[in-house]
Amino acid sequence: MMDQGDRHEELLNNDPLSTPASASGDKFGHIERRGIDRIPDAERHGTARELLLVWMAPNIIYLDVILGGAMIKLGLGIWQAIAVIVAGNAYWLLVGLVSISGATSGTPGCVVMRSMFGVRANRGNVAICVWGIMVAYEAVNLSVGALAGFALIQSIGIGLNASWKLAMVLAISVATITISVYGHATIVKLSGYFTLGLALCFAVLAYFILSHANLNYTPPAPSSAASIWTAVTVGFVIIASSPLSWPTGADYSRYLPAGTSATRIVIWTTLGAFIPAVLISILGALAGTAVDMTDPQTSFAAILPKWFYPIFLLVIIVSSITNNVLTAYSSGLALQALGINARRAVTVSIDGIVAVSLTIYALFVSNFFDALNNFLSLSVAILGPCIAIYVTDSVLCRNQYDGQQLSDESRQSPFWYWHGIYWAGMIAEVSGTGAALLCINSPVFVGPVARALKGSDLSAIAGPAIAAGVYFAMTRGTRGRKVERHLQIDQLNAQDLEETSRRAES
Q1: What is the number of alpha carbons within 13 Å of residue 445 lying toward its C-beta?
Q2: What is the pTM of this model?
Q3: H or E stretch including 334?
Q4: What are the CA-CA distances from residue 476 to residues 392, 397, 471, 487 (Å)?
Q5: Chain center to CA of 14
Q6: Residue 109: C-alpha distances to residues 115, 127, 169, 250, 432 (Å)
């Protein structure tokens, strides 16, 4: 039998920390080979500041113009719309907070969530709250890009038919999947170029919008205080749906060195997403005073010079790709966390096929904008509680996540809990989603609380608040003790390995 010293020596010889930095393939132009496995310390690199551009690139996006314009369609004035846009985008702070766990654990968000839901139950959570929502957002972005592509084809004098439409959808999808397959380092490198190029184009777009916007715009008909409050709360949910859809912030910080400042991770992640999202959504609100935002791709032709209109449409296409690159990357990791035993490049490709299928349905079978409104309104009921539980667990655990323990899916895992289920997380998620559905006002379903409040939608507040409160109440003492126990075990193991090393040298 192998004695204790032999076991430790075998661990040392197979220590992933000794893996060469090139093993992950995390270099620009090389396909990343790491998936949901922990990133060893030897392969960690980069600084927190790179997160600024990583999050800016996908958020300089035309979808935010549409969301901002939706505030005007709801009947809000300019300043009311701006207030709602800023408040809803404040949820990007939650994305910054969950991103800390990537650097401490070296694992993506869908693996960290095993801490709060259990190894088995987390698969169901990831299937719904991560993969399901992510692939739906891929379809939304792909649809926005495809609609711009259709308009671009028509603008250059080509007759639009089903073949051209399908070709455009596939071309955008292939571009997205290709970058996502290459992975983290390529995404980080290209983020700077995408950010600069899109920012310049949106600056030109802003000039033309401001030239035509009605800065003194007021809603066409006077509204009662109750109807204004209803529009404000519904608008808040629409805007908040974007940041709440990113419980996977850890996916882009997991390559950072473990000692990276948590404060810097939060600041650069939050600012990288918040600044462009707010500015472009406000731009959309201003555009809503000048053009019909029901069909913005074509209606913008009335306020843009002919030379810029094709560029405008091309910018929409590129921005949909930049956002979908991160979305496809995270949803590919989520498929691995669900138990699909395939390389990340394969899971990203599978994910792309599903997104294309949903897009074809949205564009060729259903009404895209109706589908968009239905999806955004309902997604908040699921996403809000999930990210709230994540943040609460991070606070209770002080972000002391052990990537190797999180990667263990066996019955001996400290996150196996009861038959692979952590009931505190499941009960909190169900409670939060239930509270959100009671308060929701969507085209598909209106909750009894929303109905009693004459249509006011408090789902983006009630869902996260109830989920966080329930989780905190059920885990307040136990989470801290578990962290202390895990830290003590890690410390003892480190001392044991050090002692073994000294004996070997002597």
Answers
A1: 17
A2: 0.85
A3: helix 309-337
A4: 10, 10, 8, 18
A5: 34
A6: 10, 13, 29, 5, 20
Q: Which two tokens stand for residue 94?
A: 């939650």
Q: What is the three-state SS of 275-329?
A: HHHHHHHHHHHHHCCCCCCCCHHHHHHHCCCCCCHHHHHHHHHHHHHHHHHHHHH
Q: Is residue 447 part of a domain?
A: no
Q: Is residue 38 part of a domain?
A: no
Among 122, 15, 106, which Cα is nearest to 409's? 122
Nearest one of 318, 75, 304, 31 to 199, comparing CA atoms: 318
Q: Are the beta carbons of 402 and 490 closer than 8 angstroms?
A: yes
Q: Which long-range contacts does 495-499 make (Cβ < 8 Å, 24+ apart)? A: 496/8, 497/8, 497/11, 497/12
* DSSP secondary structure string for all residues of 110-124: HHHTHHHH-HHHHHH
Total of domains in the chain: 1
CB 94 within 8 A of CB 243: yes
Altogether, the residues listed in the chain come to a count of 506
The segments of the chain whose pLDDT lies below 50 read: 1-22, 481, 484-485, 488-489, 492-494, 497
Q: Does a structural domain hold residue 492?
A: no
Q: Which residues of 111-148 are buried (b: 16+ CB within 10 A; e: fewer)?
A: bbbbbbbbbbbbbebbbebbbbbbbbbbbbbbbbbbbb
Write the pLDDT tens digit of every residue in 65-88.
989 998 998 889 899 999 999 999
List Cβ neighbours of 172 (8 Å cut-off, separation of 6 or more): 142, 145, 146, 149, 317, 320, 321
- What are the pLDDT digits (tens) for 251-268? 999 999 998 999 999 999
CATH code for position 152: 1.10.4160.10
Residues 6+ apart with CB under 8 A from 143: 359, 362, 363, 368, 372
Let me know if residue 296 belongs to a domain: yes
DSSP 26-81: -STTS-----SS---GGG----TTHHHHHHHHHHS-HHHHHHHHHHHHTT--HHHH
User: How far lies 1's CA from each of 9, 139, 460, 503, 504, in Å?
Assistant: 14, 55, 58, 20, 19
491: its two tokens: 């410390």
> Which is it for the CA torsion 488, 493, 497, 503, positive or negative?
positive
Domain region containing 305: 43-385
Q: What percent of the chain has pLDDT over 90?
A: 51
For residue 446, list its beta bridge partners: 441
R_g over Cα of the chain:
24
Convert 219-243 to b/e letters by CB count within 10 Å (16 or more is b): beeeeeeebbebbbbbbbbbbbbbb
Task: Give the number of other Cβ atoms within 10 Å of residue 303's Cβ.
Answer: 16
State how far the Cα of 402 lies from the Cα of 494, in Å rounded to an integer.
13
The tokens describing 371, both together, are 């589908």
